[in-house]
Write a structure and sequence with these properties.
Number of helices: 7
Shape: elongated
Radius of gyration: 51 Å
Low-confidence stretches: 1-13, 165-175, 271-275
Distance between the termini: 127 Å
Strand content: 15-25%
Largest sheet: 5 strands, antiparallel
Number of strands: 11
Length: about 280
């Protein structure tokens, strides 16, 4: 049985090249069929990569109807007739026996994709050197002079503007911020803090015991203990409202209402001096 199997393997067909017309760079399949018994396994060795041949994927095999089909997928990068030494194959039978099969040689004829040398057009003659134009320094000098003149004019205009100095604002009468603009831009807490400081300064002029060095609760106690009259409770309510607006989020409309109430209370107290 072993001798018959060896004879069948030696008489097997050589490697089949697909496609028949091969050009440089084509995907080529080298296929060989070996007669084998059912349940056989094939061990294939990879094909070596050279400057002429390049394997495109690992070798594959399949069994069908008493034959083992071996397939190598490669590409050739040089025209001419090539004799490819294929790797040996091992067939492992179901009973554990191993049969070695010589790889033999695959003959592949590869055609060139380039035209014949005699059909190539003659090279064009060299062109004469391109004349260089001489560059003039006047555009660069004009740009530099214009830039310097612009800087000088800008400096003169800036000095003239500095001569007009706006009048200084007295430290004793802090400016009220543009409340509507600050509230519209989301600076409600900053508005409440500024209005609260202004209100505490004016309140200290009327009630010296409620100085700005006191915290809010101490200031309220000082106002309630003073002789300011029925407005003490209203002042305490304004102080608490401003304190809440400083440290907690409030709607823009609520902040504006607190500011209006503060200004109205200052007018009634007579603490806002006439300008």
């Amino acid at each position: 049985m072993n001798a018959m199997l060896v004879m069948l393997l030696l008489q097997s067909a050589p490697w089949l090249v697909t496609p028949r017309m091969v050009t440089v760079g084509d995907t080529v399949r080298l296929t060989r069929r070996l007669t084998a018994t059912p349940g056989v396994l094939a061990r294939l060795s990879p094909l070596e990569s050279t400057g002429v041949i390049e394997p495109l994927q690992p070798p594959q095999w399949s069994y069908a109807e008493g034959e083992v089909a071996l397939t190598y997928t490669v590409a050739f990068f040089e025209a001419g007739a090539h004799r490819v030494a294929m790797p040996a194959v091992e067939l492992v039978h179901a009973d554990g026996r191993v049969e070695g099969v010589a790889g033999e040689t695959a003959l592949v004829q590869v055609a060139s994709v380039l035209p014949q040398s005699d059909t190539l057009p003659d090279p064009m003659p060299s062109r004469a050197p391109i004349a260089r134009r001489r560059s003039s320094p006047f555009p660069l000098l004009g740009f530099i002079v214009g830039a310097v003149a612009t800087v000088i004019v800008w400096g003169v205009l800036r000095r003239r503007r500095r001569r007009h100095v706006p009048p200084a604002v007295s430290a004793m009468s802090p400016a009220i911020p543009p409340i509507d603009v600050w509230v519209a831009t989301g600076e409600s807490r900053a508005v409440a803090a500024t209005v609260s400081s202004h209100f505490r300064q004016r309140l200290a002029e009327r009630v010296p015991e409620a100085g700005s060095h006191l915290d809010t609760d101490e200031c309220i106690q000082a106002v309630l203990a003073s002789e300011i009259g029925d407005q003490a409770r209203e002042i305490a309510g304004i102080l608490r409202a401003l304190e809440r607006a400083r440290f907690s989020p409030a709607a823009p409309g609520d902040v504006l209402d607190i500011v209006d109430q503060t200004e109205a209370l200052l007018d009634r107290l007579g603490a806002v001096p006439e300008t």
